[in-house]
Amino acid sequence: MKRKPILERLTPPQILVIGFAAIILIGGILLSLPVSSTNGQGLPFIDALFTATSATCVTGLVVVDTGTYFTTFGQVVLMALIQVGGLGFMTMSTLIALVLRKRISLRERLILQEALNQGSMEGIIRLIRKVLVYSLTIELVAALLFAIRWSFDFPVGEAIYRGMFHAISMFNNAGFDLSGEFRSLMPYADDALINVVAMMLIVLGGIGFIVMSDVMDYRVKRRLSLHSKVVLSMTGFLIVFGAIVIFLFEYSNPRTLGQLDGSGKVLAAFFQSVTPRTAGANTVDIGGLRQATQFFIIILMFIGASPGSTGGGIKTTTFTTLIGAMIAMMRGKEDIVLFHSRLAKDRIYKAITLTLFAIFLVVIVAMVLSTTEDHPFLMILFEVTSAFGTVGLSMGLTPDLTVFGKILIMLTMFAGRLGPITLAYALQPKPEKELYRHPEGKIIIG
């Protein structure tokens, strides 16, 4: 009997893992070329691979300064990696297939379903078309707004280029910037246009394409799905609550909000609340924040963005499900009810599994790094959580990481982008059918 080709024997999660790994490897090779570096010598391969992983996993952690170290060629490679990593390589390959009018096979639809975290294949190609149209339109409009603002500071050509780079980076929640000296958007801490456009890009990229499509169709359907309601309400709550906490904690801090006027303080508080949605940009010095604020941002980064988006973390829907389970248990209720809808038991199990998996990953990596890196534990925990949530915020640890530390952070970024459950499915052997069930037992909880 003739064996199937190896690609046909792989499961969708395995193809996603291999696909992302291949893109990272190609990106690492390109970024290590002398033509990518302004010094003409090329970036050491481990650093090039780290940067490619950070870009493809839309994280933003960097070992060298993007704005000054890389040539235009290197920056364009980063832009391409960010775009492919944010939208997903299967989405980009589907775009090529649609342009060439090629048929999308059932297997390809299954992989797209896995990549977009969808429950079924129904309407998957229609959703892909919407993803591409919405993404490119949003990036184009934002690039134009950025270019107009930066045309006052730079030549028109450079302003347009900067606008394109930052629009792609912010919408895909990557956090790479061209400001130089690892400053991110700190020179524009009180610039309303830059802040508002960047925050809108981060939020739109972080709520997920399913929600975006649902909102766009609201005029016709006159209703939102439960998923969209949960994502929008929890995202809004986290942003507002986060801004209030950061504003109160940092109001008098001379290294952060204390050096800004009233409107600047509000803008900075909101921006630092939005960016843990997994964006990675910042308008104040993250290392200068008070420890309470840094730990609060760790929590926001761990929660992250929403399913089917360009962001990472355990996701807003997972966090909502956990909060709902806690409230239901405290009230003595059996069901978790959100917006008058009962959640299925498998959704609750998946939320608990994903959260525990994420906690174990972050804790174990942080513990290991605390033995190999000579830095305070809070700084290490911040870095690890930022890598897992594909956020990119840093207290300054990344450039000082050892080779082992870089490899561990790379693996954490990779796991955060694909999702722990997807990785687990990709690595597990073919499941066997259960022929029997064990008798039910009881244990005492609490």
TrEMBL record:
Mainly resides where?
membrane
Transmembrane region positions? 15-33, 45-64, 76-100, 131-152, 192-211, 231-249, 295-328, 348-369, 375-395, 407-427
Where does the record locate the signal sequence feature? none
Keywords of the record, alphabetical order, are: Cell membrane, Ion transport, Membrane, Potassium, Potassium transport, Transmembrane, Transmembrane helix, Transport
Q: Which InterPro entries match?
A: Cat_transpt (IPR003445), TrkH (IPR004772)
Q: Where in the cell is it found?
A: Cell membrane
Provide the GO MF annotations for this entry.
Answer: potassium:chloride symporter activity
Question: Where does the source fall among the domains of life?
Answer: Bacteria
- One GO cellular component term, please give it: plasma membrane
Q: How does it sit in the membrane?
A: Multi-pass membrane protein
Statement: the UniProt record of this protein carries the keyword Transmembrane: yes
For this protein, the record's NCBIfam families field holds: 2a38
Q: PANTHER family, alphabetically?
A: KTR SYSTEM POTASSIUM UPTAKE PROTEIN B (PTHR32024:SF1), TRK SYSTEM POTASSIUM UPTAKE PROTEIN TRKG-RELATED (PTHR32024)
Give the protein's recorded name.
Trk family potassium uptake protein
